[in-house]
Amino acid sequence: MTLLESARNGIITDEMKQAAVKEGVTEEFIRQGIAKGEIVLLGSNHHKDVNPVAVGTGLSTKVSASVGIHNDDDSITGEVDKIMTAIAAGTDALMDLSVSGDIDGMRKAALSATAKPIGTLPLYQALADAKKRRGSSLKMTVNDLFEVIEKHASEGIDFLALHCGTTMDIVERAKREGRIDPLVSFGGAHLIGWMIHNQAENPLYQYFDRLLEIAKKYDVVLSFADGMRPGCLADSLDGAQVHELVILGELVTRARNAGVQVMVKGPGHVPIDQIETTVKLQKSLCKGAPYFVFGPLVTDSAVGYDHISAAIGGAISAFAGAEFLCYVTPAEHVGLPNKKQVYDGVIASRIAAHAADVAKGIEKAMQWDLEMSQARRSLDWEKQMELSIDPETARRMWKERSDDFSSECSMCGKYCAMKIVSEFLNKEKALA
C-alpha cells in the first residue's frame, strides 16, 4: 500500500509517527490529514535515511530552497555547497532544478548530501537529454519523458514537479487573452514549445494514468506545477491561470483515487489584494490539497530585493492557507544566486512562514515568540540569540555593537526601556 492508502485504511506508519513528533501533534491528526489529502508526507522509502517532512493543514509552514546546474561555470561541488548553505539557514526541503551538464550526477550528489526531502522537475532532464542525443529538445519523445520520471522516482526523489495541467486549450486561451508576460515558467515554456512544434497534447496530461502508475509504484508525491503562473501583477488571476487551476483540481482527484499523494504549486506574482482570493480559489478547486507557493512576489519592481517582496507575499499566502513556501533570493530576475543569496532567501522565507504560523495560532510558533519576549524582559542576551531565526547573524551583530553581554542593548544604552522599568518595578516591590 502507498502511504495514502495506509492512512485511508487506518494504519499509522513510522513516517507518520516521526512527523507527529516533529510537528507536536497527534499521530491520528497526521493520519487523518493524509487520508483527506490535506497533508502530504515528503519522504521516499528509496531516499536513504530521509527525514520525512509533513506539509499541510494545521502544521507549521515549510520552506523549500532551489539549487541546480544551469551554466558551464556551475559545478556539482558548488551546488552542494549551496545545499549545505540552505540547510544551515534552516530550509525544510530542497529542489534540484538542474537543466544542463551532469544532471544525473547532480541529483545523486544532492540525495547523498542531505536527509532533507528533495524534489526535481524531470522535464528539464528529458529536454536536455533529447538535445544531446537528437540535436534538439523539440525531438523529445513521450517515452523519453516518462523514462526520466521513473528514473528520478526510483533513485529516491521525494517529490516530482510536473506541469500536468498545461493543455492545448489553455495555450490557446493565453494567446487570445494577450498576457503582458506570456510565459515565465521555464518548464512550462519549453513544454508548450514542444507541444506547438509537435502539434501534440501535453503528454503529462494525455498520459496521466501512466504517470500515476509510476508515482504509485514508488510512492512518490506529485507536485503539480503551473505552467501559466503569472509573471507580473497585471496577469494575476487571468483566464489562463484559473483555467489551469481547474484542470489541476480534476487531476488532484484522479491522483487521490489512485492512492497517490499530491500537492499543487502556485503563482509567482500576485498583488497583495489578490493573495487571499488566489489561495482560497486553489483550496476550493483543488479540494484542500497543500499549496506550494513561489513567493509570491507582491511587486514587479523590487529587483535585488525580491526576497523581501516574496517574504511579504509568503506571509500573507501562508496566513490565507498556503502551507509550503518556495524561497526567492535577492538574485531573482538578475541571475543565479550565490551562497549568500541562497542563505538570505531561506531566512526571508522562514521569517514569512513563522509570522504566518503565529497569526494562525500554531502552538509551537506562538510559544517560540513568547519565550523570546520573556528573554528580552529578563535581558537574557544569550537566550535571545539562541531563539533568533538566524542566531549566527544575530550574535554577530550584537558583538559588533556591544561589549557588555549582561546589560542593555546597544541601541538605547543606558536608556534601555527594559532595564529602567525593571529597576522601577523592583523599587516598588521593595517599598511594598
UniProtKB/TrEMBL annotation:
- The superkingdom listed in its UniProt entry is Bacteria
Cofactor(s) the record lists: [4Fe-4S] cluster
Q: Which GO terms describe its molecular function?
A: 4 iron, 4 sulfur cluster binding; metal ion binding; phosphomethylpyrimidine synthase activity
Keywords attached to this entry: 4Fe-4S, Iron, Iron-sulfur, Lyase, Metal-binding, S-adenosyl-L-methionine, Zinc
Gene Ontology CC entries for this record: cytosol
Q: Which enzyme class, named as a word?
A: lyase
Query: Can you cite a GO biological process for this protein?
Result: thiamine biosynthetic process
- Pfam family of the protein (one): ThiC_Rad_SAM
- Entry's EC annotation: 4.1.99.17
Q: Which PANTHER family match?
A: PHOSPHOMETHYLPYRIMIDINE SYNTHASE, CHLOROPLASTIC, THIAMINE BIOSYNTHESIS PROTEIN THIC
**Protein name, per record:** Phosphomethylpyrimidine synthase
